[in-house]
Amino acid sequence: MSLKKTDLPMVNLFAEVDVSIVCEEVVEGVFAGYVFQNMTAGNFDIVPAPRDKMKGPDVVKSLTTSIVQPTDEGQIAQSEVQVVFDVNMHSYNFVTQPGAFRRVIMNLLGNALKYTSHGYVFLKLVVESMSPLNKPATGETVERSMVTITIKDTGRGISAEFLRSKIFTPFAQENSLSSGTGLGLSIVRSIISLLEGEITIDSEVGKGTGKLCNIRFSSVD
């Protein structure tokens, strides 16, 4: 007996979540993975700032690591990278696909850390109200908000040519010897598009990279 498409159970990937908490969990997990991946001979130190330190209207969380690594010349060098997570005070309870949102933050933050050997990676969440979405078919009005995700780093940066022509091309990497598959940003753009959002990237070699994502979320009633 063959099953029709309508006979199959529907899997609802959407859920009501606090995207700021999801983002915080991803930041901590990706940063911990970065530290353990780069430590050598157990020489590392993680210095977290006080949890949920209040600063003006925002909540700021900072993680710093000092990693002792051998250089190409066999010498010992200390690399310090600070990750700052900044969230403006607002309700971040939305209906979205948590797994997709996690993947976006994981890929963007992981990419920033991968190419940042010193300085900082800064991640900020800001939410703004949008005009409601009216559905003519049902007459339903859906409240919506725009969440802006900003990620800036002091890493090696991206050349203007690669940024213009290949930044979102699958399997493309500016340095062919770099680890990874070159799919990260391609996947991120596809997911953000499915979430009704856009992503823009600005970068300069030697001065770091900035990524700006605007994603539309349906508010929880």
Keywords:
24% helix, globular, disordered N terminus, alpha+beta, Heat Shock Protein 90, ten-stranded mixed β-sheet
The top level CATH class name = Alpha Beta
Q: Report the biggest beta sheet as strand number plus sense, adding barrel if it closes.
A: 10 strands, mixed
Shape from CA axes?
globular
Query: Which blocks of ≥5 consecutive residues have pLDDT under 50?
Result: 1-11, 41-47, 49-56, 68-77
Query: So how many helices?
Result: 4
Domains (count): 1
Q: C-alpha Rg, in Å?
A: 20 Å
* DSSP, total strands: 10
- Going by CATH, the architecture would be 2-Layer Sandwich
- What level of helicity do the residues show? 10-25%
Termini separation comes to 42 Å
CATH overall fold name? Heat Shock Protein 90
**Oligomer status:** single chain
SS-derived structural category: alpha+beta
Determine the CATH superfamily: Histidine kinase-like ATPase, C-terminal domain
